Amino acid sequence: MLIKKMKDSGVEWIGSIPKHWEVIKLKNKYKFITGFTPPSNSDKYYDHMYGYLWATISDLSKNEYIYETKNKVSGKYIEEYAPKIIPKGSFLYSFKLSIGEKGFAGLNMYTNEAIASFIKNENRYSIRFLYYSSFLIEYNCQYNIYGAKLLNQNLIRNAKVVFPPIKEQRKIANILDRKRNNLDEIILKTHQSIDELKKYKQSLITEVVTKGLNPNVEVKDSGIGWIGCIPEPWRITKLNQLFSIKKHIANKTGYDVLSVTQSGLRVRDITKNEGQMATDYSKYQIVEKDDFVMNHMDLLTGWIDIAQQQGVTSPDYRVFYNKQKKFAVNKYYLYVFQTAYINKIFYGLGQGVSNVGRWRLQTDKFLNFYVPLPSLDEQKEISSYLDRQTIEIDKLVENKESIIEELENYKKSLIYEYVTGKKEA
Asked: Which of 2-11, 43-52, 122-131, 303-312 is predicted most confidently?
């Protein structure tokens, strides 16, 4: 077996490379241009876009090849903008606002100024090899004051990458195309199986909280559309017969701040200064252990959970408690309420402006919301059953997500080994 002769690249993150390969600055081998953002309300802006697409970073994150974008504008093409046209097949790489968004021009197009476009030239270099080696550019990044990775034109131009002979570039790109496609297919199928598990989990919860655990029990029509038929012994009741809203403002600080997230009710780390922050947490409302906390302000992405501890939460949230513990089990009704979120039952009763995240469930609609009322023992049995089943499903999802993470890491390692010449092409 022929042993490949290696040399030190002189660049720490690249390591050793084949002796006949080069380490180069991008500006010395590759031709690229950056896009632009024309002045708003400019006649020239609209005129020069005729027949062309104008791509942004958000377009790069959708598909590998860009064939369409919402930014297409009609008008009369003006020749003075011709040098800014990105030819079909060019490699597009984002900088300034984010790191790692990549893509190819599926058609001749323009891009905005946050994208560096490497012009395709197969006679000098393989654009697909550049695509695979582009992660090395990220080692030239800088961090802004918020900890985000940023690039600029100067860093792009002086970024160091490995440059093999053109035949080897093409061979490596072809190998990585095949291997990456195989891995991506496995990753896609794993994502699909995760989606199926999540759908099954929610259908199971919906079925059990409205139909119970005995498939042979006689049923009757509940008269409520989203509930459908219920077991004969069950009743239907309004939510206000079991729960009451409360609102007690803290009037002092020192409490843990509780925030409703899609993962449940979480203690917020206010020292990180992330997201929307209140100027005075003494104006937040008190939450006691076992209270329900509900984001009723956004019924599309909002959520509901039960507090496991005392704290304070936003005065905009809805806090309520179980006033009939002889008839209602908190965990059973948590499953009921979460089902109403996921199946958009609450959403159908809301009002407001949904496209700006303000689709609210008004107090009267909430208090008069009809819920099933099984016996206390059945509620406990259903809750215990769903706890066991959802834990098992969540474990399966977690395992599959770990597989995806391992495959993604393996894919990165594979690309690194090939584009730096450590693995034989």
From this structure: 303-312
Q: What are phi and psi for residue 219, nearest 5 degrees?
A: -125, 165
- 63-70, Cβ contacts within 8 angstroms, sequence gap of 24 or more: 63/103, 64/102, 64/103, 64/104, 65/103, 65/104, 65/105, 65/106, 66/92, 66/103, 66/104, 66/105, 66/106, 66/107, 66/109, 67/106, 67/107, 69/109
The residue behind tokens 């800088």 is: 142
CATH 1.10.287.1120 positions along the chain are 170-233+375-425
Judged on CB neighbours under 10 Å (0-12, 13-18, 19+), 385 is: middle
pLDDT digits (tens, 9 = 90+) for 181-205: 999 999 999 999 999 999 999 999 9
- Distance between CA atoms of 284 and 252, rounded to whole angstroms? 9
Give the C-alpha separation, 168 to 146, whole Å. 40
Could you tell me which of 214, 213, 209 has the C-alpha nearest to residue 224?
209
Taking a C-beta distance cutoff of 8 angstroms, is the pair 116, 97 a contact? Answer: no
Cα angle, residue 220 at apex, residues 219 and 225 outer, rounded to 5°:
115
125: nearest Cα among 7, 31, 17, 34: 31
Phi/psi zone of residue 199: left (φ > 0), alpha (ψ -120 to 50 degrees), beta? alpha
The letter for the amino acid at 175 is I
Q: How far apart are the C-alpha atoms of 401 and 379, rounded to whole Å?
A: 32
Could you tell me which CATH number the domain at 170-233+375-425 has?
1.10.287.1120
* CATH topology classification for 6-164: Adenine-n6-DNA-methyltransferase TaqI; Chain A, domain 2 (3.90.220)
Q: Which two tokens stand for residue 111?
A: 């891009």
Cα distances from 184 to residues 195, 229, 404, 405, 424, in angstroms, run: 16, 43, 10, 12, 22
Output the six-digit token pair for 374. 């099984």
Q: Would the pLDDT of 144 be above 70?
A: no
Inter-residue contact 368 to 330 (CB < 8 Å): no
